[in-house]
Design goal:
Length: 184
């Protein structure tokens, strides 16, 4: 029996030693092994991970700050552009209104100038017609006078003899002397 006890004790020791050790099979890893690995990673990688997170946080906050500044700048530029657009629209309206009023003024001036030119041309035409009419009347009068004088002379030549002619001349000379004495 002494050997039996030894064998039982030896067998129990052998089973305990079989259960103790590292399990290297990744598929059979238990929660304890995972916890140990994660704990080691957290303990040794905490500084690196926190530095990475802080750097990432700073980069994100800088990017957000830059985006906000660009947004504010873009908003300001947009407002300035809107103000310039309104000013340009106002100026365009003023130019258009001024152009229309200038156009109306020039149109009125042109119409008034044309009316004045037409009036002057009408007056000139009427004056030319009157002068041409007067000249034509004078020419007709001269022709009639010349014709009458020629007929009278012809009639006188035919009707008058020398004696009658001399008496007529004397009579006219006497009339001229009488007129001369009256005017003096």
């Amino acid at each position: 029996m002494g050997n039996d006890i030894e064998f039982n004790v030896f067998q129990k020791i052998w089973t305990i030693s079989n259960d103790f050790g590292l399990n290297t099979d990744l598929l059979e890893t238990n929660l304890i092994n995972l916890g140990i690995v994660i704990s080691l990673l957290i303990y040794f990688g905490k500084g690196v991970l926190s530095n990475l997170l802080i750097n990432r946080k700073l980069a994100i906050s800088n990017t957000i700050r830059d985006a906000e500044e660009r947004y504010k700048e873009a908003t300001y530029k947009l407002e300035q552009a809107k103000i310039r657009l309104e000013q340009a629209k106002m100026k365009a309206r003023n130019i258009r209104t001024s152009g229309l009023s200038q156009m109306e003024k020039e149109k009125k001036d042109l119409i008034d100038g044309t009316d004045e030119d037409l009036r002057r041309l009408e007056d000139s035409k009427n004056a030319t017609i009157r002068s041409e009419k007067q000249r034509a009347i004078e020419q007709v009068q001269q022709q009639v006078s010349r014709s009458a004088s020629e007929r009278t002379l012809e009639t006188l030549k035919n009707c008058l003899d020398n004696e009658l002619h001399l008496r007529m001349i004397d009579h006219n000379i006497g009339l001229l002397r009488a007129m001369e004495s009256v005017t003096e």
